[in-house]
Amino acid sequence: MSKIETRGLxxxxxxxxxxxxxxxxxxxxxxxxxxGPSGSGKSTLLRVFNRLIELYxxxxxxxxxxxxxxxxxxxxxxxxxxxxxxxxxxxxxxPNLSIFENVALGLKLNRLAKSKxxxxxxxxxxxxxxxxxxxVRDRLGAPAGKLSGGQQQRLCIARALAFQPEVLLADEPxxxxxxxxxAKIEALFLELKKDMAIVMVTHFPQQAxxxxxxxxxxxxGQIVEWGATRDIFTKPRHQLTEKYVTGRLY
Length: 250
Ligand SMILES: Nc1ncnc2c1ncn2[C@@H]1O[C@H](COP(=O)(O)OP(=O)(O)OP(=O)(O)O)[C@@H](O)[C@H]1O
Description:
This protein is an alpha/beta fold and 250 residues long. 36% of the residues lie in helices and 26% in strands. The two termini are 33 Å apart. The model has no long low-confidence stretch (mean pLDDT 95).
């Protein structure tokens, strides 16, 4: 069964429809890349999956979205966002808060650790999972803002992983990183997909080719093509997809 499934999903901002009837399946334990030109609706689609879209009062959503077969619009939003975590293009730790507290805060606010010891264990577990522990173990009390950009992004991933999510949404997570840090995040995602579904927006077809299992190609709010990554790159069925993956459509 799909981890996430949408049926007839539509989103509009005021009079403008930006997602126009999307039917999409996100398989579990794999990386699905959302590709498409600027403004095609990739970020909007991602924001529906954890209902972040509801923070935009002008956004109107209709259609169906299921997580493990359950209607996300009927779920408790706090539960949904715990299970479906998100990381963004610009790493957004709280810069003055310590490395430890950045990961611990969400756990504390949601009362997910029963003791100080459990909290420490979960923070360490998340930092290890995000492959950051070895770099920060001696300075957990230092402000997060002192970390490099790549480290800050892995800290944000650790913060998300602390909730032990089932789905990780990533909106261009490497767009602001150099090739070395990009490679680290890509390797990390390949590890993480063993435990969860990852949905990643990317502007780089090469990145989708390197790490995704499936690609959904969006154009003007519609899914033009969806399938196994290899098929999308080697035998795209639609001309628009072919143009995009060969760098002739932006
Ligand atoms: N809060 C908003 N109010 C009005 N229009 C919006 C809002 N957010 C997004 N849009 C519009 O919705 C459309 C889809 O935007 P979205 O950010 O989802 O596209 P995208 O594919 O992620 O683009 P990019 O690759 O440039 O990030 C765009 O035309 C955008 O202008």
